[in-house]
Design brief:
five-stranded antiparallel beta sheet; 143 residues; 9 strands; four-stranded antiparallel beta sheet
């Protein structure tokens, strides 16, 4: 036989469970996704073959994005090649991106995007096929 107080207690427990579940659902919906890592720097008169610093990239679906802002130099193109460090073997190079739009002024940008190539240490090389010195007001690597 159910008493009024038992019935009220069960109703209160059900309401509390619904409120808790709703709160968890709302927090899950509005939680921010994992943020990509990045670093920023600049280049000042670097010669062809310049290698950037290395960074560790965990395997992710975001890939790698390199953005140059405000390029200047003898040429109107800077070639950027992404490399993955391979111990005791030649490093693996990926598609070369030709950055030209960043030469349009101090706030003009060029961006190269590379697909995910798995976890590892990466770096980029500027004008690895030759070319003049280049300066870049701001660069950002996002991975």
């Amino acid at each position: 036989m159910k008493t009024a107080s038992t019935q009220a207690l069960r109703t209160s427990v059900r309401r509390a469970a619904v409120v808790l579940f709703s709160a968890i659902t709302v927090v899950g919906i509005f939680s921010a996704p994992a943020q990509a890592a990045s670093w920023s720097s600049y280049l000042s008169g670097v010669a062809a073959g310049y290698e950037s610093r290395n960074w560790y990239e965990p395997s992710s679906s975001t890939g790698t994005k390199i953005t140059f802002t405000g390029c200047s130099g003898a040429n109107t193109v800077v070639n950027v090649t992404l490399y993955k460090v391979v111990n005791n073997l030649p490093d693996t190079d990926y598609t070369r991106a030709a950055f030209t739009q960043c030469f349009g002024g101090s706030s003009a940008t060029s961006t190269g995007n590379w697909s995910d190539h798995g976890a590892g240490d990466y770096y980029f090389v500027v004008n690895d096929g030759g070319g003049g010195n280049v300066s870049v007001r701001s660069l950002t690597v996002t991975y």
